[in-house]
Amino acid sequence: MKVFVEEQRFKRWILISVMVIPLVGGIIPLILAENDIPEFNSDGFWGLTITFITISLVFLLILSVRLRTKINEQGVYYRFIPNNFSEKFIPWDKIDKCYIKNSKSGIFGSGGYGYRMCFFGKRGLVMNLGGQFGIQLELKSGKRILIGTQKDQEAESVLKTYQSKYILNEK
């Protein structure tokens, strides 16, 4: 039994470093304001505090984003944290086609990384945190799901194993 397992984290260091600058920029005035012992009704102090807390929460949210993928003989499991509270499961009998897509074929035509849903058109649900490849699932219901992967060859090997076993269509 072949199994594909992958967990991706958000690793766009440029974005993370851009988030650190306002975070540090928010800490310095708070430290300097502490020497003045500001009054509790000081609008400037509370404005900086709220800004600092907001930026910190967004920063922590970005750092907590993960995409978990598992493919085995039962089907495809995925979970995009924090969007999915539980693991989603798609059994093989609900999948019409599955294959690996490359960015050169327009994998992320709607742009970049993250979690996107398109209700109209052919894109469907797209989840990606890095890399230029994705596991494209076309369901018998007509829905399409694209799960980003950085292990395209390993995923393709496992998909081909189960395509032949469950007589799935291939692109």
Please characterize this protein's 3D structure.
The chain is built from 3 helices and 9 strands, in the order βααββββββββα. The radius of gyration is 21 Å and the shape is elongated. 36% of the residues lie in helices and 30% in strands. A hairpin with a 3-residue loop joins β2 and β3. The longest helix has 24 residues. It has 171 residues and is an alpha+beta fold. The chain folds into 2 domains: 55 residues; 101 residues, PH-domain like (Roll). A 5-stranded mixed beta sheet has the order 5-8-9-7-6, with helices on one face. The chain has a 4-stranded antiparallel beta sheet with strand order 1-2-3-4, with helices on one face. α1 packs antiparallel against α2. The mean pLDDT is 78.
How would you summarize the topology of this molecule?
Layout: E1 4-9, H1 13-36, H2 43-64, E2 66-71, E3 75-81, E4 88-91, E5 95-102, E6 114-117, E7 125-128, E8 133-139, E9 144-149, H3 152-166
Helix pairs in contact: 1-2
The gist of it:
The protein is of the alpha+beta class and 171 residues long. Helix content is 36%, strand content 30%.
Shape: elongated
In the CATH classification, which architecture of the largest domain applies?
Roll
Largest sheet: 5 strands, mixed
CA-CA gap between termini: 23 Å
Rounded to the nearest angstrom, the radius of gyration is 21 Å
Task: Output the number of helix runs.
Answer: 3
CATH topology of the largest domain: PH-domain like
| DSSP, total strands | 9
CATH class membership of the largest domain: Mainly Beta
**Helical/strand content category:** alpha+beta
Summarize model confidence as the mean pLDDT: 78
